[in-house]
Amino acid sequence: MFTDAQNWRKKVGLDELYKNIDPFDYLEREAVFNCWPMWFHKTDKQGRPLNFHFLGGLDLERLNKEGVTPERHWETVLVNAECLTREILPAAARKYEKEIDSVFVIVDLKGFGLSKFWQMKNLAQRSFQISQDYYPETMGRLAILNAPSSFTLIWNVIRPWLAKETANKVDILGPDYREKLLESIDEENLPWAVGGKCRCETEDGHEGPRCHLSANGPWLDGRAGWGPNAQKAQTNVSEKSNEIGDPSESKNSTNRQRIQDSDAQSIYANRASEVEQVKEEQLEASSAV
Ligand SMILES: [Zn+2]
């Protein structure tokens, strides 16, 4: 299993990819999280990171329209998965000074119908497969929100058949999930969208809750980052420190971005077959809608 994971990492050029895409800071990030809303946000009472999946917000067609190609999207899915073991879990463990090796996954089914299911089926299957094969046992608990009542009924039948440890990891909840979530998550850490108090609003002119973009949590404590915003901030600092200010600085950062893009191009080439498959699946998905 270990060698499999090593081979897979090499095959997809994961280390290189991670250098090129900062999971918390890349150009298309807002578009990705608006249309593929699966993100990390704060922690539960035990210190486990929360991982939200708002399946009703899925919109791969819009993602494409916003200029995010299926290749690029798949790369962001990969770095998002990678940051779990590379940054998210270690940071939570550091903050709470104990071993934390799993996350609390919260899947909201509100607005999730058949057409969205067909859109995401293949991609979701691929990303779940990757989690299972290469990042095993990182799901400590799963809560499904807004499950249709038929789903809840079936779960009540199935639950006793499962091993207790497995069954205890899963909660299938209807629309009245709030109290149950608050048993294990502080109100301040729970996003407003699912009945909590957190809105992650910024002061930079953006209105409305931004929990889906903030990536708020201990993993951001003291983190410098290497994406375009970090580069811009660096440029600003060096411009301020120069008495006259050097206009070539901002040009440099554009060049850096360009160099990164060309690195990314070579990664695409190395993964041509995988990318082709993703494209086919996307086409399949959009024709199924
Ligand atoms: Zn928030």
Please, could you describe this protein's structure?
The protein is of the alpha/beta class and 289 residues long. α5 crosses α6, α6 runs antiparallel to α13 and α11 packs antiparallel against α12 (248-270). It contains 13 helices and 5 strands. A hairpin with a 5-residue loop joins β1 (38-43) and β2 (49-54). It has a 5-stranded mixed sheet with strand order 1-2-3-4-5. It has a single domain, classed as Phosphatidylinositol Transfer Protein Sec14p. Zinc ion is lined by residues 41, 191, 198, 200, 211, 214, 216. Residues 222-289 are annotated as: Disordered.
List the helices and strands and how they pair.
Elements: H1 2-11, H2 14-20, H3 29-35, E1 38-43, E2 49-54, H4 60-65, H5 70-96, E3 103-108, H6 114-134, E4 139-145, H7 149-158, H8 164-169, E5 170-172, H9 178-184, H10 211-214, H11 228-241, H12 248-270, H13 272-288
Helix pairs in contact: 5-6, 6-13, 11-12
The structure holds zinc ion.
